[in-house]
Design goal:
275 residues; 4-stranded antiparallel β-sheet; 36% strand
């Protein structure tokens, strides 16, 4: 298995994890140049706080969605200003080592960052929940530094045909949008698995705001999405459920937080799942 990480420079770092069980000394990495696809002549945007997705199980493509251009060091060699948001979905072919892009502008016209992401590789689906737009999101968005627009909706990308849908997230919160939370896919629950959304900060949705504080969500508030519901024409935006977590020892409940790590561990008999 190979994990590919994009860097905000001229290279792709490839880390071979196939020998991970043999010890850290056996892990190798290599760098390859980021080159433009000769047909389209364009490079992928240089972004941070976006998401890399695997494709379906029989495909070696990696997808890039979301992210924002960092202004932390504009003198960095190769730094580029924000790219147009016309093409928000990019794909990297591991075999040919070339990038290409797909136009999903009709469903996902912007490139948000800091959204909660998850993927159902077994179904060829990638999910991106809410997020924010800022001065690094696109050349076509007039947002000054220090302000953001927090966006509602959950973008669902079908990596088998490179199409997208944008589902309403009003079932989770009508007038609020979430940023810097985390989401995980659990395939063994329900007919086609669930998404578990937790943590992050909330802000009024779709309004220009000064970002000077965090409105943390309690870690006891958990939103669960039934993936099978998006296949049902009677529920075009899917179905969300709200679940409050409990703990007999209040001090063991994690404090509210953002930008944390979230992984799922399942029992061998799949009778329970822990995060």
């Amino acid at each position: 298995m190979v994990f590919v990480l994009t860097l905000a420079d001229e290279y792709m770092i490839n880390v071979d994890l196939s020998l991970l069980g043999l010890g850290l000394a056996n892990i190798s990495q290599s760098a390859s140049n980021i080159t433009a696809n000769p047909i389209i002549g364009s490079l992928p945007p240089q972004v941070v706080r976006g998401t890399l997705y695997h494709s379906s199980q029989d495909d070696d493509t990696i997808y890039l969605y979301g992210g924002t251009t960092s202004y932390a060091n504009t003198s960095f060699p190769g730094w580029q200003p924000p790219a147009p948001s016309t093409y928000t979905l990019w794909a990297y072919d591991i075999t040919s080592r070339q990038w290409t892009y797909y136009n999903i502008e009709q469903s996902a016209p912007y490139r948000p960052s800091n959204g909660a992401a998850a993927e159902a590789v077994d179904q060829g689906l990638a999910f991106y929940f809410n997020g924010e737009l800022d001065s690094g999101s696109s050349q076509s968005i007039d947002i000054v530094n220090g302000t953001s627009v927090f966006v509602s909706g959950m973008v669902v990308v079908n990596t088998t045909d490179q199409t997208a849908r944008n589902l309403s997230t009003a079932q989770v919160s009508i007038n609020l949008a979430r940023a810097r939370g985390r989401m995980q896919y659990v395939s063994e629950v329900g007919e086609k698995g669930i998404l578990v959304l937790i943590g992050g900060s909330v802000f009024p949705a779709n309004q220009l705001m000064n970002v000077n504080s965090d409105n943390f969500l309690p870690m006891t508030e958990i939103s669960i999405f039934d993936v099978a519901s998006i296949y049902n024409t009677s529920t075009p935006d899917g179905v969300w459920y709200q679940q409050n977590s409990t703990n007999q020892v209040a001090t063991e409940v994690p404090s509210p937080r953002v930008d944390f790590c979230l992984v799922v561990g399942s029992a061998q008999d799949l009778s329970s799942h822990n995060m």
